[in-house]
Amino acid sequence: MIEKIGERTLHFTDAPRVVGFGSAVGKKEGEGPLSEWFDKIYTDTTMGGETWEKAEAALQKKAAELALKSADLDSGDVEYVFAGDLLNQCVSSSYGLRDLEIPFLGQYGACSTMAQTLSVASVFVESGAADTAAAVTSSHFCSAERQFRYPLQYGGQRTPTAQWTVTGSGSVILSAYRDGKFCSHGEKLDEHSGNLRRQIGVSHICAGKIVDMGITDANNMGAAMAGAAADTIYRFLEDTDTVPDDYDLIVTGDLGMVGTSILYDLLKADGVDVEKKHKDCGLMIFDTDTQDVHAGGSGCGCSASVLCSYILKKMRKRELNSVLFAATGALMSPTIVQQGESIPGISHLVHLTNYSD
Amino acid sequence: MIEKIGERTLHFTDAPRVVGFGSAVGKKEGEGPLSEWFDKIYTDTTMGGETWEKAEAALQKKAAELALKSADLDSGDVEYVFAGDLLNQCVSSSYGLRDLEIPFLGQYGACSTMAQTLSVASVFVESGAADTAAAVTSSHFCSAERQFRYPLQYGGQRTPTAQWTVTGSGSVILSAYRDGKFCSHGEKLDEHSGNLRRQIGVSHICAGKIVDMGITDANNMGAAMAGAAADTIYRFLEDTDTVPDDYDLIVTGDLGMVGTSILYDLLKADGVDVEKKHKDCGLMIFDTDTQDVHAGGSGCGCSASVLCSYILKKMRKRELNSVLFAATGALMSPTIVQQGESIPGISHLVHLTNYSD
Asked: Which residue of chain A has the CA closest to B52?
């Protein structure tokens, strides 16, 4: 059942369960601090595709397939796939997933897409609209760089506030669980898994409003998104009457170094100190000292691949039991920024909880 | 309550009600056959914006405001807005709607977006995740032309199968209605409206799969989308065990002349004849004999502005009582078509029903 809490939070009393997840990343991500946690590391970042767009589509397909495999399900068992990405007209999703033949509802939340796809999929699953749904997203350094910045061959200088788009994809499969059992595919889901597949549930979501901090520098996305992250995290803590210490981890998507410090300042001004509990996926996936990524990682695939590797695997080990996942997006296009517009940010939050049954 | 029917259809037993809707279009659309039905016709297609992208954002904002006004609601009464468009990174939605401060879940379904936003909003409202939600989309001839085809100044020749992107936007406000009353804002919604605001409900949705007919000509979108429309309409009729004669109108989004004739052929091969009941928004909004639009209108704003004017107004007059709205989208980008890929289509279907209470 879906309960509204406070102004903007939804509580899922049955908590759609994370029955499977998968992550696939590129070479540079595979050389970073989270190397051991990823399911698939490509050393050839074309992923066998002829173009960067086709490479990203292949990457997204791989993550979706890994998630299905980890759930022991086939694409035919999934009723809806919620997917999106940064490419114009979200083509890595539509081309990457077209062969799966799952009813497709494209989502666009820029780099907040992983939290958005999980949120909407959770509402579908908790409400009975679906027994099983998938959430997927991706980004690719090379397709993003030429679309948002410069052709790779140009070798443009990056500013200190710039972030490095992650080549990565993550996918989660959610299944409805009620009255102590899975609503569908229970036989498949329970097999060989002990209670692993009923362990992690989506207990709350809090959708974001568009927050515009007036930033016009497309090389300073962290700053553009920090206000949105602060707004959503603050709203969720107020709505649920909780404090950062109630959670094992509060993770943002890709604020990077600049955005993270702004987030701390904004929340402190509202009397909330998240610093002890907070990590940012953009600072987790790369070693910013040695990997030359400037202010950290970014892209839909950043928070998606960190969630679908380190975070969910740590939850399965019960080393993390209650996680706020607040992915962050900058809702701009190069065209409209060149027209002098500021960059609006958004952040959607998903609360993941370990259940004991 | 949400009931699953057949393979892919959802039945909403309480049927989220269309409590308000609004449409805004450009000059050419205002000179077409549906002229009298639109709420707002701009004669200056810049809508006061400095660029075509800002013009489209203004257009989308206008439709959302008209819908709110027609529902007697403020933006603060709306819990979620589901919106998307054709522009890179869906910027007409994010920039058009950022001032409304409504939690924002961006949707991408290309020209099927109106049906997709209505579908997802319906699930949120019927499930209790929201009492009130908005669905919005738009397209603009000038922003689409330069992004997908050529700069306007180039004056490129159009092929006979090409369609004319509609400058238009439509918005619907849905509210939860249960046990004979609105779940929220009942006082506002019932005031002065008789039972108009409880009359039209979303009774079913059927989400689309990605269907690729192998079309590689970006000037023949109707053909690329026809297979998806046929697939979804056929699926819905099978799932609900109904025939075209059970409906007053079966309307597709923007198949145009070419796509419409392919739709008839594909459905006839499956033993379904929709011809007598079918219209296509792309052929309704323009007079193809006199308005020089070649195969008809297209764009997210095509089906959105026709739905939110002619169709919903005819329903309120009870001249139409049961309508299948199957918007159609081509999930491609110019980049990936230039790379030789075929164009996948999608079609989401929404069944709108007049209720007597």
From this structure: A336
Q: What are phi and psi of B153, to 5 degrees?
A: -65, -20
Give CA–CA dist B141/B158, Å, rounded: 14
The residue of chain A with its CA nearest to that of B337 is A91
3-state secondary structure of A41: strand
Q: Please give the Cα distance from B81 to B134 (Å, whole number).
A: 5
Candidate from A10, A90, A129 with C-beta closest to B108: A90
Q: What DSSP designation does A89 have?
A: G
Considering all CA atoms of chain A, what is the largest pairwise distance in Å, rounded to the nearest integer? 58
How many helices and strands (H and E) does chain B possess?
12, 18
SS3 B182: strand
Give the integer Cα–Cα distance in Å for A251 and A333. Answer: 25
Say what the ipTM of the complex is: 0.97
Which tokens hold the place of A5? 């809490």
Short-list B74, B69, B174, B166, CA closest to B120: B174
How many C-beta neighbours within 10 Å does residue A318 have?
11
Among A84, A88, A129, beta carbon nearest to B88: A88
**Contact, B352 vs B201, CB < 8 A?**
yes
Cβ-count burial of A50 within 10 angstroms (0-12 exposed, 13-18 middle, 19+ buried)? exposed
Hunting for tokens 């549930």 — which residue is that?
A201
- B112 within 8 A of B253, measured Cβ to Cβ: yes
In A, which residues are within 8 Å of B336 by CB distance? 51, 53-54, 91, 95
Does this model's pTM top 0.95? My answer is yes
pLDDT per residue, tens digit, chain B (357 aa), is 999 999 999 999 999 999 999 999 999 999 999 999 999 999 999 999 999 999 999 999 999 999 999 999 999 999 999 999 999 999 999 999 999 999 999 999 999 999 999 999 999 999 999 999 999 999 999 999 999 988 888 888 889 999 999 999 999 999 999 999 999 998 888 877 778 999 999 999 999 999 999 999 988 999 999 999 999 999 999 999 999 999 999 999 999 999 999 999 999 999 999 999 999 999 999 999 999 999 999 999 999 999 999 999 999 999 999 999 999 999 999 999 999 999 999 999 999 999 986
By C-alpha distance, the chain A residue nearest B131 is A4
Nearest of B81, B84, B76 to residue B56 by alpha carbon: B84
Output the six-digit token pair for A330: 């900058």
Question: From CA A305, how far away is CA A103, in angstroms rounded?
Answer: 23
- Residue B50's φ and ψ, nearest 5 degrees, are -85, -20
A334 touches chain B (CB under 8 A): yes
CB contact (8 A) between residue A333 and residue B89: yes
| Inter-CA distances, B310 with B21, B166, B317, Å | 11, 15, 11
